[in-house]
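Q: Given only this backbone (412 positions), what sequence would you predict?
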């Protein structure tokens, strides 16, 4: 769905913002906070298309690949199996055979399940396929420190002017429309405009480790056309850090800036004490905080146990936690007050904030934020609300398992 930017004349029933603080002024203030604290300028005139689940995401990405005329850059953490994995590989290979410069970078851990025949087919057709940080047992000498830091980014850039990012991986698990446990729930964004440069930079940063040139004759670095009424977008990249990094700053600014409501979808939710306090502080100042997290079909039970260990503190403090029931919830979306959103590859956990290469787009556009809030609301009937008293009655063995996994998450 193509979204436009709300004009100054637009009003929304139910807004509870301070009348002295119009949505437009709040967007301007939030933009300056993010620009000043991250040192990354936001750009105007970006045309965004929000894509929900494989039925919308994969056709849009494949269409962009097949319509490309000069270059394709594709970076992913997950590349597994299924018909969709073959379809992407053959689409990329076809464009390389047509003479395009096609570069594919797959995380060596996240993509370990890919069919090797697909790699062979792509390389035989001229695709430059590289693995990000192969482990020692695959023949690359990496320090233990570096091996634990993966690229979790999901980025596709076509002809340097069309970009995609979000949570989706290339595997059959993401096909469909989240109707049952075989179809994962996710969100991706197609973007045209200056923000594509930020996505391109996230690819180039990881591609630089391969030793290949960053600049060749096929690269034009074009100026971007500005969409009338387009969105203001800031792209932030996160890398391994032992201290505060840009991912943490983005989340912190958003949570501290919220005045009425926070809505978050995230696949792996294990915030540290500081970010738990930010959520509780938001509730204390009157913000409605809703978190949508994986339910019975979580793909990583260890991560879910670590997440569940903090449910009691949050729900007792007024945070509402919704467990998504139909399938694995893999989206990474945060919205505040119906004015701004964060969409990208980063989860709210230690791995995203300290260990992995990530990329997110902060979208300062009430129309986009409202559409994502509507998506959140549409999923609520398919969720179970975590009730404080019932949660406290969970089995003792689960509580013990939760404590053990929390300790592990402080180190990995």
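A: Predicted residues:
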């Amino acid at each position: 769905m193509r979204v436009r930017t709300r004009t100054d004349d637009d009003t929304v029933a139910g807004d509870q913002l301070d009348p002295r603080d119009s949505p437009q002024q709040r967007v301007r203030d939030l933009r300056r906070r993010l620009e000043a604290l991250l040192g990354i300028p936001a750009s105007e005139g970006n045309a965004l298309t929000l894509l929900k689940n494989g039925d919308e995401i994969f056709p849009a990405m494949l269409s962009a690949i097949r319509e490309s005329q000069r270059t394709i850059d594709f970076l992913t953490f997950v590349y597994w199996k299924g018909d969709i994995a073959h379809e992407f590989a053959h689409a990329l290979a076809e464009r390389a055979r047509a003479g395009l410069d096609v570069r594919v970078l797959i995380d060596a851990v996240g993509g370990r399940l890919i069919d090797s025949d697909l790699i062979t087919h792509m390389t035989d057709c001229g695709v430059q396929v590289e693995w990000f940080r192969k482990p020692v047992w695959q023949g690359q000498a990496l320090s233990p420190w570096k091996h634990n830091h993966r690229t979790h980014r999901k980025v596709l850039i076509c002809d340097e002017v069309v970009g995609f990012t979000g949570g989706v991986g290339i595997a059959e698990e993401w096909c469909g429309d989240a109707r049952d446990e075989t179809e994962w729930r996710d969100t991706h964004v197609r973007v045209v405009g200056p923000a594509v440069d930020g996505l391109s930079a996230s690819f180039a940063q990881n591609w630089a480790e391969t030793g290949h040139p960053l600049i060749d004759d096929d690269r034009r670095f074009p100026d971007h056309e500005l969409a009338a009424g387009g969105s203001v977008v800031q792209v932030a990249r996160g890398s391994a850090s032992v201290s505060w990094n840009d991912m943490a700053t983005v989340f912190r600014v958003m949570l501290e800036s919220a005045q009425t409501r926070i809505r978050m979808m995230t696949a792996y939710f294990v915030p540290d004490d500081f970010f738990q306090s930010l959520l509780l502080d938001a509730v204390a100042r009157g913000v409605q905080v809703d978190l949508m997290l994986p339910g019975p079909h979580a793909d990583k039970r260890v991560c879910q146990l670590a997440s569940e260990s903090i449910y009691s503190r949050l729900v007792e403090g007024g945070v509402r936690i919704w467990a998504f029931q139909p399938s694995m919830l893999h989206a990474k979306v945060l919205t505040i007050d119906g004015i701004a959103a964060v969409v990208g590859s980063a989860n709210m956990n230690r791995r995203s904030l300290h260990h992995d290469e990530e990329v997110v787009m902060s979208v300062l556009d009430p129309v986009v934020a409202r559409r994502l809030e509507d998506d959140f609301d549409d999923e609520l009937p398919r969720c179970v609300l975590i009730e404080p008293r019932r949660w406290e009655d969970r089995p003792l063995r689960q509580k013990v398992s939760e404590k053990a996994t929390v300790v592990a998450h402080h180190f990995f």
